[in-house]
Amino acid sequence: MRSCWNLKFVSLFFCCTLGLLVSTNAQFSLPQEILTPRAASLPPYLFPVNPGSPNLLAGTMGELRSTHFHTGIDIRTNNMIGVPILATQSGYISRVIVGAYGYGNALMITHPDGNVSLYGHLDKFKGAIADYILKEQYARKSFDIDLPFEVGQFEINRGDTIALSGNTGGSTGPHLHFEIRNQNNEALNPLSFGFSEIKDVLSPIAFKVALTTLDINSRINDRFGRYEFSVIRSGNNYSLPFPIFADGKIGVEILAHDKLDRSQFRCGINYIEMFADSTKLFTQEIEKISFNESYDIVTLMDFKILKTKGSRFNRLYVADGNPLTFYKSVLSKGEVQVLDTQRKIKIDLRDLAGNKSQIKFTLKHDAPTENVSFLEQMTNAIDYDISENTLAVNSKVCSNKEYNSEMFIKGVSTKISPAYSGFTKNVYLIDLRKTLPDSLKTCSGNLLFNFSDVVPSGTDYHYYSDYLDADFSNGNLYDTLYLNTNYKIENNRERFTLGNLLTPLHQTISITLKPKTEFKSLDKTSAYHLEGKRFEYLGGEWLNNKITFKTHELGDFVLLTDTIPPNMGRINCNQRSARFRISDGLSGIASFEANINGEWLLMKYDYKTGIVQSEKLDKKQLLKGDFELTVRDRAGNERVYKQKIVHQK
């Protein structure tokens, strides 16, 4: 039996990959007998694809992915599958993993110096290991397989062909994902091993600077919030053509990436420094990555902008709750204090090859004012946002100048004045550490905040209500959560709200929903996370008409019943092979299993295409007799295909 969880691609890729990475930690404590003097006399590491010839990369170590840091280099194979992959150094195969997600087919080699090389997204393994893996899959009756090996079981020489390149797992195109890890299971930068096959004379490229106010009293161009500015390029120097007026505590972010020769791909920048005047405020160096903190990338990037716009801005300050260890020199958490005159900001960007770029701009002090000439036009009459501990409410200016806005706290009305105003709107700023309002009423309309509680990040905390409960354990949150909850019936469906998508979670939390609807088939009714029009299956366990499940995202949740079996389309089913396309419209594929004349038959699975394809233990033996393929979804629905395969002369 083979299980495959069909989550949203981004989170699924990361979860599967991270599980693989973290679980390898105990696997690579090297026996003392292989840490011999031979390690000191090892030849240089060999480039694993076409060594000695120019190669191109599609990704570098340390670059910012949506859910994790990239832990290796992606070596292009000219969009081809089947390119020979060579062992970068002598050693022994210490682990092989086969699966539909993450790295797909992956092989790891432990070397005499204690390092481990990893080769991911492989199409096929080569040599004795390939036969061994196939036999183990049949012995275990599983496509997914995770095999550790002992010293001497499969020895490898530098330059041996260990596999053929592929497009398996979470790969979005044919390439080799290549890593080198140390004995602490930390990813090192493979390019630091001196591979001459990769040329890089191009400097990092900058696009934007973003500035954000870090407390309720700070301002940028007289305004509270986050604002982006496009830079002007002159060679490898970038600048803003005008000073930015600011006051108070300011955070700086940059949108930038590195380029490699003859490659259109956007790569990561490993070294960033920021100076205010002559004082170094911030240094970020990504030279090794611990797999235990890879998901903490959500604290290095601006998570809200990533989710709403898809842009990966690199923060040049250490946000609350950021546990990363890339910061070699940080003064006052990298925050820029603009209290008088001006601060000249300089940001140095450098890649591993030593190519440099520089960004310069000036923050000019300007005291806050209540009257701001130019404020952005509003789409809605009234809206709000939360930044750090501050609730910012924007309300269109009305003709009735005498109108008194009101804030309600536990039903009690309090007059509230704008922090500042312009021709088009009023801006109200509320410190949530001091008060948690129920609602706010202006001449433009009313806002209901649905704040239910303040959840601290450094302790266990249990939230209870009439329609849902939530268990927050110490470590679930990066920062204090001003929790909003809601319950409503929409399109004859109950919708439960706990927080929102723009709050990252460090670890999964447990939620219990208490529906008022009676479901006829509880065994086929599960919890789903709702994002736009997309449903993500979460599952859950029913007890006393309540369902409990775990989630790695906050937001909206619904209960859906899935009674429709998976889809199955026959591509071919004959003596040579059985090939089908499978899918499921709601809960997702849970498992599939094939047999011929009652004997288990291996089916390889590619979730990107939905194709399952047979692979025989004996390549010469033809398929003949009664073939059966069973596919199940996670709600327990099942579809079976049967066919008698007749021998044809």
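The above is record 1. Record 2 follows with the same two-line structure.
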Amino acid sequence: MAPKQGLRRLVVVLGDQLDLEASAFDDFDAEQDAVWMAEAQQESTHVWSSKQRIALFLSAMRHFAEALQAAGRPLHYHRLDDTAAAAGLDSLGAKLQLDLLALAPQRVVMTAPGDWRIFEQLKAVVEAAGLALEVCDDRHFFTTVRDFAAHAKGRKSLRLEYFYRELRQRHNILMDDGQPAGGQWNFDADNRETFGTKGPGQVPTRAAFPPDALTSEVLTLVKTRFADHPGELDSFAWPVTRTQALQALQKFVDERLPLFGRYEDALWPGEPWLYHSHLSSAMNLKLLSAREVVQAVETAYRAGHAPLQSAEGFIRQILGWREYVRGIYWTQMPRYLELNALDAREELPVWFWTGNTDMACLREAITQTLEHGYAHHIQRLMVTGLYALLLGVRPQQVHAWYLSVYVDAVEWVELPNTLGMSQYGDGGLMASKPYVATGKYIQRMGGPCKGCRYDPALREGDNACPFTTLYWDFLMRHETLLAKNARMALQVKNVARMTDSQKQAVVLRADAIRRGEVGLIP
């Protein structure tokens, strides 16, 4: 159905808002309104996005365009290779500006976006056209940013646990007669098991969706147009429609949820998927809502299909952490993007874009990321993120890498997790301490240390694990700051037990690592 001119409302839909029931569609009238969507080159190049990430967004958007047309909603859709793109209009703002002139809507409406940069760009374009951009709350979340701001007001520090408990009570989730199910709020202590020497055994297969004709067309486009971007497309099988996302949710609940809690932090060589849900991309595209995912998991627990430790551990990530991170982002932007509390100045190693390193855990995490556009939270926080933190990489470079390579990366969720939780760039707003450890942590959690040339137990010498060397170097470099942190004081005290010669040996090897003399495969 062709869009009309002289519209009552133009509903702007972004690539991470693929929901026919989104709040911007409330009171939609096909006789007076139209939908606007656009693919823009700038969205793949403002950070050097991986092929998997580009393909996921484009395929999901094009499938959603079909769903809109099937629902009888007039649609104005720009493809990357249309005439506007050929004319150099490669940003969302430029394309919207053109269409506001042509379509002359009385109002422009959108659901709350997930990216400050995009919001500012579109808002400026709409206001320049003499209109106000009307923003509707995103019902995919349990809370609004206003809710989070009210929670945060007057608090000297922000902590997830208090916010999470408030939401459990408010929405009556995992509650029994006003008390938390099982008599406690948090089962995190039960969710740190490893697979042991025998490994994970037979892990359930990934919920995979072979490319249909539309996705295949997108994959061909990405391989051609973005040939020099990182990553591979051979394994592309992410859910790109609402139906597929629901199937992926059901498969997780049926097959992975029962053991999710026990093994959520565990690693194992050659096993990228393990017991995680792989639902974050579908949720962040809004093919699934947080409410229905939480409901499905609680229902499974109530039916006896999954233990409480798994249900609570998973729900805490959605109801707690996801909502908390979103609140941090929108109440702290745009200044948050520039924070660098540890004054980190190093460049991101070039091999983060290739996996060409002789450190086994990093090689596995990065090559897996480039192949699938995916790594689970321990690989992100305690392998790639930990190395960048210990090395002293500028947090903005780490942020750009994470936003580039992961299929579930939308800035509202990626930036606080990376700059705050992973890199401690906000000085403790997100997390109560820097998450630092030696290579022994990765070894203990099941990382591929057995096949690595470096020894996690060593901090000095040619065979010392770079993680372990850099850990001690990090504590020494930030000793004064970290000594003031109650949760870090014990770790910092261990520095005092080192001799001057041991400290010097650590510093010399850390400097060699930063110069690229350690880790890079020639």
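DSSP finds 21 helices and seven strands in the chain.
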